[in-house]
Specification:
By secondary structure, the protein is an alpha+beta fold. The chain has a single domain, classed as 2-Layer Sandwich (Beta-Lactamase), CATH 3.30.450.40. Helix content is about 35%, strand content about 25%. It has a six-stranded antiparallel sheet, sandwiched between helices. It is globular, with a radius of gyration of 14 Å. Bound molecules: methionine sulfoxide.
């Protein structure tokens, strides 16, 4: 299990005073991806138009460039503003398979000041049922800490 307290302290130190969304996303994607062997694709999709996500900073193999809110796990997270914890991607209707090795994933909405939807954090794993409620709680808190005032 990832040491979220340690990771969050490192991220806070690295990102202190930074307000550029892309710089923050790039730093988080890197730090998260290398912190846990379960994470095979770690990155952000950004809201670029009403109901439209585009790829942001990420680590791992290439991701889909464009995801409408109506599609996939990322779209569901953006549409509902609720974290999507998917233990088995094959059981999720409309899952977008960018990598056939992906078995499970978690997608956390990234919300700024006054409820502005900035994008989503998407972490994919090649292991089935890789993510827990503890991951969800820690990642939601991390997104709030880093992006909540932007
Ligand atoms: N997890 C996404 C798609 C995979 S990415 O392009 C890396 C989804 O179904 O929303």
């Amino acid at each position: 299990m990832i040491d979220y307290a340690d990771l969050s302290a490192r991220i806070a130190a690295l990102t202190q005073g930074e307000t550029d969304e892309i710089a923050l996303m790039a730093t988080l994607a890197c730090e998260l991806h290398h912190a846990d062997d379960r994470f095979d694709w770690t990155g952000f999709y950004r809201v670029v138009a009403p109901d439209l996500l585009k790829i942001g900073p990420y680590q791992g193999g290439h991701g889909c460039l464009v995801i409408p809110f109506s599609r996939g796990v990322c779209g569901a997270a953006a549409r509902t503003r609720q974290t999507q914890l998917v233990p088995d991607v094959e059981a999720f209707a409309g899952h977008i398979a960018c990598s056939s090795s992906t078995r499970s994933e978690i997608v956390v909405p990234v919300i700024g000041r006054a409820g502005r939807l900035i994008g989503v954090l998407d972490i994919d794993s090649d292991r089935p049922d890789a993510f827990t409620a503890a991951d969800q709680a820690a990642l939601e808190r991390m997104m709030q800490d880093v992006f909540g005032d932007l």
